[in-house]
Amino acid sequence: MQTTVRCNWCEKDDLYRHYHDTEWGRPSHDDHHLFEHLILETFQAGLSWYTILAKRENFRNAFDNFDALIISNYSEEKIAELLQNAGIIRSAGKINAAISNARLYLECVKDFGTFAKYIWQFTNYKTIENNWENMKQLPATSPESDAMSKDMKKRGFKYIGSTTCYAYMQSVGMVNDHLQSCFLYNKSI
User: Fold this and answer.
1) Catalytic residue among 16, 24, 36, 41, which?
2) What mean pLDDT, rounded, does the chain reach?
3) CATH number, domain 8-176
4) Whether 159 is catalytic
5) 175 φ, ψ to 5°?
6) pTM (2 decimals)?
7) pLDDT of residue 180
8) Whole-angstrom Cα distance, residue 81 to residue 90?
9) Active site residue 132
């Protein structure tokens, strides 16, 4: 029986394998999906992605299925409710950043027509295809994530350093960092 070879970071459990196999590195131009990942990545800052992934459904429920318009109008009462929600990361700074980032996301949609048009400009509207043999080769940042972070910070986005931007680029398929040994390497996904 042949086993499926994946990027070794995802072999922790079925949740991670499913995310790897069905989402990570797949190019997304869907604004709702891009916004969800933006919010999740900002909550991930300083934590493991697995922590956020395990709480993803809780985040969806707590943050109105990542409806940017609703989030951008959260009241103090809603913020207090989120700070009591044990199913998410209860960081006042990150919760307030999510609200502010929702407003800025909506501004980008207004200015560019879609968030995808804004965010994909940093990779010249195509996926950067890398050729890594092992996990040690994967960078934490890139010139593209540096540029993305700089521009987003200039616009006022919070919790969006270059490392967070690079992880975001990986998650939404702006960068293909599947290892050469992975069954998804070099596939049209």
Assistant:
1) 41
2) 95
3) 1.10.340.30
4) no
5) -130, 135
6) 0.94
7) 94
8) 10
9) no
Distance (Å) of CA 186 to CA 2, 20, 29, 88:
19, 15, 20, 35
List the catalytic residue out of 19, 23, 50, 107.
19
Kind of pairing between the strands at 175-176 and 128-129: parallel
SS3 content of the chain, % helix, strand, coil (to 5): 60, 0, 40
Q: Is the pLDDT of residue 108 over 90?
A: yes
What is the mean pLDDT of the segment spanning 161-166?
96
Residue corresponding to tokens 């993803």? 56
To the query of whether residue 19 is one of the catalytic residues in this protein, the response is yes
C-alpha to C-alpha distance for 125 and 128, rounded to whole angstroms: 9
How much is the CA Rg of the chain, to the nearest whole Å?
17
Q: What is the mean pLDDT of residues 56-80?
A: 98
| Contact by Cβ (8 Å): 49, 167 | yes
| Spatial separation of the C-alpha atoms in residues 96 and 103, rounded to whole Å | 11
User: Percentage of residues in the chain with pLDDT exceeding 70?
Assistant: 97
